[in-house]
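In this notation, each integer encodes one residue's backbone shape. One such record reads:

___
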Amino acid sequence: MKSKIKRVTSIVMMGMVGMVMAVAEDGQSNAALDKEIVSLKQRLDAMEAKLAAVASRPIDKDLIESSKESSLKKGRVFSTFDVELYGYICGEASYDSNSTDDCNQPSFVSPHTGNNTSHFNATAKETRIGVNITGPQIWEGKLSAKLEVDFYKDSTSQGSVPLRMRDAYLKWEKETLAVIVGQKVGSLMAPIGPDSLNFNGLSNQGAKGATHAQIRVTKDFVIEKDKKVETGISLNRPGNSAGGSPHLQALVGYKSKLLCDRDNYIALSGVAGKDRAEVEPNAEEPHQRYARKYSVWAGVLSAIVPINDWLALSGDVYVGQNLGLYSGSLGQRYNNDNANPHSLRTIGGWGQAAIKFTKKLTWNTGIGIDKIKSRDVASYNSNVDGQYMDKNWGLFTNLIYNLTDCIELGVEYSVMETHYKSHGLCRNHRLQTSVSFDF
């Protein structure tokens, strides 16, 4: 530190001496110059003494550490890790020509009774809030977390609704390997879905999926540029399942470019597990109570096929049984009729065409169906207005317009038909509008 002070002092002295000599060349006398040089030396000596005093003071380490901590904390609001807030606010209005199972997100038409009436509804339940959390590096991989909620939890009030957890999971990634632990919306089985304004999409009308607590492992294999194979396996605990063991899901998919510069995708996926029903005492066995187990399984073929830059086709087909836990089998888990218990053998699927007129305007049209083998279905089911269903289908068409990068407008017409073994066919026409603001 002292050597630096001396160098600075020498440079300053040389500069001042040079200035004085330049002045001397203009005609100053030698006596005046000598006097000026003496004065400058005195000033420099005083400056050097002050600088030396400052350099000899002890360093305040606590002050330095405090400054570092303040600098590191700058910009942190929620956590010691990077947190990204996202979501959207969505308002919807709809009109139904008939009664449905849910006025906000219908999947079935109610049986025709004296109470079947048209109705208008408005809601903001689809509003969604989430956070993405970037965690530390661990085991040579990247750790992250996600938490997301909406307001679609069951509630008797339309104006005051509770939060519903959608996603709450940890994710560890290393290159093309990923592990997810927690609850996640969607399943490995049937990885794609239709673009309907109805929050349920074509749920119980051909589209599969549910929110599950799960452990999921996925691995991608890159074959060459624009071509890769996706694989995954997961253990799931479906809601309301009483099977006593997790359900196993698996997926194998292939992604590539074929007809245009957009990705084609084809996947084969499925689920296997058990569900259990309690058999209540009845006339034949008045003093006996026991559990009856049913096999749950499905195989699903899914595909996305872009035809060109503005047209894409997508959909899936499936076969399985007892899929009420996965928005299949028309929401029915099994036929637990004491006199004639049955598994519910089911087939179905959905398809969609998406036309992108401009960067801002898209037209989607889709159709889907769920069909249970009729002889597997009993005549009555206490869970669905006293009736059993054996077929349910729906069709929708909508226009979605991006007014800005964050504001989206939509309008949709849909029709759905539900067939009951005792009441026959019931139909509903629905008109729905929505506006959402992304943030």
Observations:
- Confidence is low (pLDDT under 50) at residues 380-386.
- The chain has two domains: 2-57, 94-119+197-210+218-438.
